[in-house]
Amino acid sequence: MTDSPHKRRVPVGELIAFAALVVSALGVWIAWRASTNNQPTRVVEQRQAIPMTLRGKVQDDGREIVISPVESSHALESLTVTIPSAYPIELGGDGTLDADTVASKVDKNEDKGAHSMAVSIKARYVEMGKERTATGRYVLRYRIEGGGLLGGRSLRLVSFGRG
After folding, report:
1. Is residue 134 part of a domain?
2. CA-CA distances (angstroms) from residue 82 to 43, 105, 110, 151, 160?
3. Domain for residue 35, yes or no?
4. Is 64 part of a structural domain of the chain?
5. In the predicted model, what is the mean pLDDT of residues 143-148?
6. Which of 139, 70, 69, 142 is nearest to 101 (CA)?
7. Domain residues for 94?
8. What is the average per-residue pLDDT within 80-108?
9. 3-class secondary structure per residue, the chain
C-alpha cells in the first residue's frame, strides 16, 4: 500500500448549506440588535381620531338647548358659540345654551315666527387622553313668540344641527 495524500473535495450541497447557515445567523444577529435599542415597539394598527360633531337637545320647552358631542369618546371641556355681529358666548363643559342669552344677541325687530341663523362653534375636548380643539358651522333654529299689546316677546330654541 502506498501512502498518498488523498484530497477531499467539498460537495456543492455542503457549500450551499454553510452559506444558508451564515445568512440565518446574520438575520438573527440583526433582529437581536434591533430589539436592544430600548425604543418602544410601534403598534401598526392605531386608533384614528374621530372628528368632533355636535348635536343639540332642546329642553325646558325651548328655554335651553344642551349641545353635546355625538361621539361618546369625546369629553367636552368648553364651547364658544359665535353669532354673527355679536360677542361670542362662552359655555362650560355642560354645553347648555339658554334662550335668554340668544335673545340678547339677535335683532330686536325680528317678526314673530320661525327663524334660523348660522353660528360658529369652537369646542375644546379630550379624546384618547389628548386635548383637542375643533371648529364647525352649525345652524341654530329658534322661534319668536308673543309681542301682543300687553305681553313681551319671548324666544324659544327649536333645534341645533350641522349647517
Report:
1. yes
2. 40, 10, 19, 29, 14
3. no
4. yes
5. 77
6. 142
7. 54-162
8. 86
9. CCCCCCCCCCCHHHHHHHHHHHHHHHHHHHHHHHHCCCCCCCCCCCCCCCCCCEEEEEEHHHCEEEEEECCCCCEEEEEEEECCCCCCEEECCCCEEEHHHHHHHCCCCCCCEEEEEEEEEEEEEEECCEEEEEEEEEEEEEEEEECCCCCCEEEEEEEEEEC
Query: Is 29 a member of any domain?
Result: no
Task: Give the whole-angstrom CA distance, residue 46 versus residue 55.
Answer: 27
Cell 383637542 -> residue: 132
**What confidence category does residue 49 fall into, taking pLDDT thresholds of 50, 70 and 90?**
confident
Task: Give the three cell numbers for residue 88.
Answer: 361670542
What is the residue type of 116?
A: S
pLDDT digits (tens, 9 = 90+) for 51-87: 888 888 998 888 899 988 888 888 888 899 988 888 8
Task: Give me the number of domains the chain comprises.
Answer: 1
> What percent of the chain is predicted at pLDDT more than 70?
86
pTM summary value: 0.65
